[in-house]
TrEMBL record:
<feature type="transmembrane region" description="Helical">
    <location>
        <begin position="342"/>
        <end position="365"/>
    </location>
</feature>
<feature type="transmembrane region" description="Helical">
    <location>
        <begin position="283"/>
        <end position="303"/>
    </location>
</feature>
<feature type="transmembrane region" description="Helical">
    <location>
        <begin position="20"/>
        <end position="40"/>
    </location>
</feature>
<keyword id="KW-1003">Cell membrane</keyword>
<dbReference type="InterPro" id="IPR036259">
    <property type="entry name" value="MFS_trans_sf"/>
</dbReference>
<feature type="transmembrane region" description="Helical">
    <location>
        <begin position="220"/>
        <end position="241"/>
    </location>
</feature>
<keyword id="KW-0997">Cell inner membrane</keyword>
<keyword id="KW-0472">Membrane</keyword>
<feature type="transmembrane region" description="Helical">
    <location>
        <begin position="309"/>
        <end position="330"/>
    </location>
</feature>
<dbReference type="Pfam" id="PF07690">
    <property type="entry name" value="MFS_1"/>
</dbReference>
<feature type="transmembrane region" description="Helical">
    <location>
        <begin position="253"/>
        <end position="271"/>
    </location>
</feature>
<protein>
    <recommendedName>
        <fullName>Uncharacterized MFS-type transporter QVM81_20970</fullName>
    </recommendedName>
</protein>
<feature type="transmembrane region" description="Helical">
    <location>
        <begin position="47"/>
        <end position="65"/>
    </location>
</feature>
<feature type="domain" description="Major facilitator superfamily (MFS) profile">
    <location>
        <begin position="185"/>
        <end position="405"/>
    </location>
</feature>
<feature type="transmembrane region" description="Helical">
    <location>
        <begin position="371"/>
        <end position="388"/>
    </location>
</feature>
<keyword id="KW-0813">Transport</keyword>
<dbReference type="InterPro" id="IPR050171">
    <property type="entry name" value="MFS_Transporters"/>
</dbReference>
C-alpha cells in the first residue's frame, strides 16, 4: 500500500477531482473492456463461423485471467508502487487491441485468428487486473488512507461509466471500420492513458515485510465472504432480469437495468462520506437490509412497477457494499500488505459473479425465475448476519495490522 505525503486535509471538490485524476486510468482500462464486449461474440459466431461455445469462451477468458491474476496485482502494487503496475496494465490493454488487429489481418486463417482473439482477451484480463487494483491504491496514496472508501466508490462509478459507454461506442466503431476500426480505437484509448499516466508523480510503496498470501486471505476472507453473498443479488439481476420479464410477459427489462445502474451510481454520489461517518460495517448492514427488500420485492412482483422498485432498491443497497466492507478488509492487514488485501477481497466478488450465473440457472430451471431473487435475498440475509457477527465479535488481528490501520 502506498504512503501518502503529509499535507493539509482535502475536502469537497478538490478531493473528488484528485481522486478522479487517478481513477480515470481505470476508466480507460474498462473502456477497452466495454468496447469489444458487444462485438466479439457476434464476430466469432456469425463472421468467423465458430459455435456459440467459442463465442462465449472468447469473452469468458478475460474474466478468468482477471480472477487468476488479481492477487498478484495487489502484491506487485505493494512491492513496486501502484503507478508502475497501472502503466503495465494499460500496456496490456494496448496489446489486447494489437491482438485484435492481428486477428483481423489473419481472418483468412480462422484458427489463427481465433487464437489471437483468445490471446488478446487473456492479456486484457491481466491488464485490467493490474490497472484496476493499481489505480485504487494510487488514489489512496494521493489522498490518504482516511478516504479509501471514497476512492473505491469513485472507482466503481468510472467502471460502470466506462462499460456503459464502451458497448455502444464499440458497436459504432465496428460498423464504421470493422474489427480493424475497433482494434485501433482500443489501442488509441490505451495509448492516450499511458501517455497521461507516465508524467504523473509516483507515490511511495510501503516498506516492511509482506505477509504470505495465506495470512492475508485469513484476515480478509470474512469480509470477502459477506461481499460474495451480497454480490449474488447483483448477479441474478444483471444476468436474468430479461428472462424474468419475459416469463412474466412484461416489457421494460432494459429500463429495469438502467434503474439498477442509476441507483448504484446515485447512491455512491449522494453518500460519499457515509462510510467515514458511520463505519464500514454499519453501512454494509444498512445496505444489506435495503438490498434484501429490493430482491424480495422483485421476486414477489406481480406487476412491472413493483419489480422496478425492487430492482432500484437492490441497486441502491448493493452500491456501497464493496467500499464499506473493503475499508474494513484492508485495515485488517499491515500497511505494506493492503494492496494484496484489496486484490484478495475483490477476488470474492469475481468468484461470486462467476458462480452465480450457472447456479441460479439450475435453480431457475427447477423452480422458476422468481425463486432466484428470493434465494438471493436469503443469501444476503446470511451476509447481514455475518457482518453483524463481525461487528459484535471482531476478529483478533496481529499487533502490526492494528497499528498500521
Amino acid at each position: 500500500m502506498p504512503e501518502p505525503a503529509a499535507e493539509p486535509a482535502l475536502s469537497g471538490l478538490r478531493l473528488n477531482l484528485r481522486i478522479v485524476s487517478v481513477v480515470i486510468f481505470n476508466f480507460a482500462s474498462y473502456l477497452t473492456i466495454g468496447l469489444p464486449l458487444a462485438v466479439l461474440p457476434g464476430y466469432v459466431h456469425d463472421v468467423m463461423g465458430f459455435s456459440a461455445f467459442w463465442a462465449g469462451l472468447v469473452i469468458s477468458l478475460q474474466y478468468f485471467a482477471t480472477l487468476l491474476s488479481r492477487p498478484h496485482a495487489g502484491r506487485y502494487a505493494d512491492l513496486f508502487g501502484p503507478k508502475s503496475i497501472v502503466v503495465v496494465g494499460l500496456c496490456g490493454c494496448f496489446l489486447s487491441g494489437l491482438s485484435y488487429l492481428l486477428a483481423a489481418t489473419t481472418s483468412h486463417w480462422p484458427l489463427v485468428s481465433l487464437a489471437l482473439l483468445c490471446l488478446g482477451r487473456v492479456i486484457l484480463g491481466i491488464g485490467q487486473s493490474l490497472a484496476g487494483t493499481g489505480s485504487t491504491l494510487w488514489g489512496v496514496g494521493v489522498v490518504g488512507a482516511p478516504h479509501i472508501g471514497r476512492v473505491i466508490s469513485w472507482n466503481g462509478i468510472v467502471t460502470y461509466g466506462a462499460m456503459a459507454l464502451g458497448a455502444p461506442l464499440g458497436v459504432a466503431c465496428y460498423a464504421l471500420g470493422g474489427l480493424y476500426g475497433l482494434a485501433a480505437t482500443i489501442m488509441a484509448v490505451a495509448l492516450l492513458a499511458i501517455l497521461f499516466a507516465l508524467p504523473r508523480p509516483k507515490v511511495k510503496a510501503s516498506k516492511g515485510k509482506p505477509l504470505p498470501f495465506r495470512a492475508v486471505l485469513g484476515r480478509v476472507w470474512p469480509y470477502g465472504m459477506a461481499l460474495a453473498l451480497a454480490t449474488t443479488g447483483f448477479g441474478v439481476i444483471a444476468t436474468f432480469i430479461t428472462l424474468f420479464y419475459d416469463a412474466k410477459g412484461w416489457d421494460g427489462a432494459a429500463f429495469a437495468l438502467t434503474l439498477f445502474s442509476c441507483a448504484f451510481v446515485g447512491a455512491r454520489l449522494l453518500f460519499p462520506n457515509g462510510i467515514n461517518r458511520l463505519g464500514g460495517l454499519n453501512v454494509a448492514m444498512i445496505c444489506f437490509a435495503i438490498e434484501i427488500v429490493g430482491l424480495l420485492l422483485t421476486g414477489i412482483a406481480m406487476v412491472p412497477w413493483v419489480a422496478k422498485v425492487g430492482v432500484f432498491l437492490a441497486g441502491a443497497g448493493f452500491s456501497l457494499v464493496f467500499p464499506a466492507l473493503g475499508v474494513v478488509a484492508v485495515k485488517a492487514v499491515p500497511q505494506q500488505n493492503q494492496g494484496a488485501a484489496l486484490a484478495t477481497y475483490t477476488v470474492f466478488m469475481d468468484m461470486s459473479l462467476g458462480i452465480t450465473g450457472p447456479l441460479a440457472g439450475l435453480v431457475m430451471a427447477w423452480a422458476g425465475v422468481p425463486v432466484i431473487y428470493l434465494a438471493a435475498a436469503g443469501l444476503v440475509v446470511i451476509a447481514l448476519l455475518l457482518t453483524w457477527r463481525l461487528k459484535k465479535w471482531p476478529p483478533v488481528q496481529a499487533p502490526e495490522a492494528t497499528s498500521s490501520s
